[in-house]
What we know:
By secondary structure, the protein is of the alpha/beta class. The protein has a seven-stranded mixed sheet, with helices on both faces. It has helices at 6-16, 33-43, 60-68, 82-88, 107-115, 131-140, 154-161, 171-179, 219-231, 237-242, 250-259, 273-285, and strands spanning 29-30, 50-54, 71-76, 95-99, 120-125, 145-153, 180-188, 193-194, 201-208. The termini are far apart. Strand 3 (71-76), helix 4 (82-88) and strand 4 (95-99) form a beta-alpha-beta unit. Helix content is 41%, strand content 18%. Helix 9 packs across helix 12 (273-285). The protein binds S-adenosyl-L-homocysteine. S-adenosyl-L-homocysteine binds at residues 25-30, 54-57, 60-61, 75-78, 101-103, 125, 127, 130.
Amino acid sequence: MKETSISASTRNLIKKYDFKIAKRFGQNFIVDENVLKTIINCSELSKDDYVLEIGPGLGVMTQVLCEKAGGVLAVEIDRELIPILKVSLFGYENFELINGDILKLNLKAILEENFGSSPVKVVANLPYYITTPIIMKLLEEDINIKSITVMVQKEVGERLCAAPGGKNYGALTVAVQYRCIPEKVLIVPPESFIPQPEIESMVVRLNFRDKPPVALKDEKMYFRVVKASFGQRRKTLLNALTAGNLGRSKEELKTVLLNSNIDENRRGETLSLEEFAGIANELSRQ
Length: 286
Ligand code: SAH
């Protein structure tokens, strides 16, 4: 096959199939060779690895994933892309394609069916309109993940990597950092995509921790406390927790905060992972 740049091959595929880019599915195809290489290198793939790709699009990155990894399972929502992907990935025995909505699938069952109990690496240029729910789904479902290497909006990348106290520190930060150590990899300009998104993007790698940084009696309680604390950013911690459907009265929560050594007038965004864990454990105790 003639060597073509991925920009030319993407344009050719769109033209050949008269493919109509669907804005509602957040379609921004990567056409920058260096960005693609960075994502691939960063995922550190070998033939022992199994990959879950979310939103393969035209399959340009998917081909490289199939070359490097032992197996690739791709989930694509857009029906129009399925016949194109079948042609692009023709001949790759280690490729499986599912036409579906990543947010609605039973990922655990599908991954087990394809890869048994092996851990997976998630590699994706995510659809930006659902970045946060996808990441939360990957974290909250009981899936064995080694790492997540993804392209996200720069603003979400900043939130994933934020430290306490800043404006980017929120529920997503605290949920992700409980499971993973995030790493900023690369800022990506709009010109690296067709069509160009309006904002800058970022490649982020989330490395899964061997064990959580704080001991929790009940993980679900931790996620509930985090959501409640950031639910009302302008409120004091006590008021946010009271409004947060934790099933406790204001007086009870006052005592919980007192026992956890946390000033009730602080704001959620100033609390560390350990402090959220302290509140969650105190709540699970009572
Ligand atoms: N990986 C390709 C395309 C990225 S664009 C590339 O880098 O060039 C995002 C992709 O996610 C699109 O293919 C879009 O159709 C797909 N997508 C959008 N919503 C989805 C969902 N809910 N489930 C699965 N795929 C989805």
